[in-house]
Amino acid sequence: MATNPGFEPVFCTIIPPHVLDTLAQSDDAALAGPARRTLERDSIERTHRRLTTVIGAPSVTPPKEAADDKPHRTIYDARRKTELPGRKVRGEGEKPGKDATVNRAYAGLGATFELFHKTYARNSIDGSGLPLNATVHYGEDYGNAFWNGEQMVFGDGDGEIFLDFTIPVDVIGHELTHGVVQYTANLTYFGQPGALNESMADVFGSMIKQYTLGQTSADADWLIGAGLLAPRVTGKALRSMKEPGTAYDDDVLGKDPQPADMDHYVRTGRDNGGVHINSGIPNRAFYLVSDALGGHSWERAGQIWYAVLTGGELAQDASFQDFARLTVAAAREKYGDGDELKAVIDAWSTVKVPATD
């Protein structure tokens, strides 16, 4: 099946709708109000993305300097409003200001660019020097961050459940990786291909965090969104790649619903068929490969995953099994019948996804 016949950018958020739905039903107005406003805003942005897909998004021309293989970042401040992109507050090469949120967004965009460029020889999100634009201080207590097909957007959180969405660098990397997926395999945002889309964003988001901190696979916490949850929440992050289903267990948010293997795959019509939920299965597979190989995750495990994402064989509607078999083929092609191949086969076996005939 041909892949990526035409870009169909989707609206991808870091916080799943089912989490915001739970908060919106709270008896505590301090929790319900921001969650409802966030859901309403997400609905508007999702509709805007669909219309843009039909009508056509304005083309983004890389700057003349794009060939220099350096990032071209611009940070905007929405000033708690929702018009995008907002007021420009920092451009490429400009010194840090007093706004820590602006500085974190700028640094996170740079960290993402650096990992893809130095490790995978990719020049920005599209491979051709696409400018990296981000808007901060979006909306009133907006509890999400998203990639809308054209740029990054970060809310400040409500201070009750979520803090500033620029705090975890892996959240920044996660959302920008949705852009990489958009320009490569363009995985359909529903069911298993949608969960693969989310998993790829988590995988590279986690590697960006590890790369920034200089961590090996053994050193890393393998958490997505650590530092984002407010002190009142009983939890450590949004998701755990190492132990899906253990990131939080809170009286308001409920328990982390991610399954760790196919025996516990969640069949649901919510969350685009569970894209944020079932992503725990391929997430764990990547962790297991990285853990078995040791060293830095972006070196061997990351090379295999990147080869599948960009190799042209991954169909837009790929299942977990399709993806698993492609990782086996990529491991064999890149490294032969050695430790890498065994690690990949064993990982998919552990999460109960058939990867070989």
Describe this protein's structure.
The protein is α+β, with helices and mostly antiparallel strands. The chain has ten helices and ten strands. The strands form three sheets. It has a six-stranded mixed beta sheet with strand order 1-5-6-4-2-3, with helices on one face. A two-stranded antiparallel sheet has the order 7-8. Helix 3 (100-120) packs across helix 4 (169-183), helix 8 packs across helix 9 and helix 9 (320-335) runs antiparallel to helix 10. The radius of gyration is 19 Å and the shape is globular. Residues 1-7 and 52-59 have low confidence and may be disordered.
The proportion of residues forming helix, as a percent range, comes to 40-55%
**What's the order of the H and E elements?**
EHHEEHEEEHHEEEEHHHHH
**Residue windows where pLDDT falls under 50 for at least 5 positions:** 1-7, 52-59
Q: What is the terminal-to-terminal distance?
A: 19 Å
Average pLDDT figure: 92
Evaluate the radius of gyration.
19 Å
Biggest beta sheet summary: 6 strands, mixed
Class from helix and strand fractions: alpha+beta
Strand order of the largest sheet: 1-5-6-4-2-3
Inertia-based shape = globular
In brief:
By secondary structure, the protein is of the alpha+beta class. 42% of the residues lie in helices and 9% in strands.
What topology does this entry show?
Layout: E1 12-13, H1 17-24, H2 29-55, E2 73-77, E3 87-91, H3 100-120, E4 132-136, E5 145-147, E6 152-154, H4 169-183, H5 191-213, E7 223-224, E8 239-240, E9 249-250, E10 254-255, H6 271-274, H7 280-293, H8 301-310, H9 320-335, H10 339-350
Parallel strand pairs: 2-4, 4-6
Antiparallel strand pairs: 1-5, 2-3, 5-6, 7-8, 9-10
Helix pairs in contact: 1-2, 3-4, 4-5, 5-7, 7-10, 8-9, 9-10
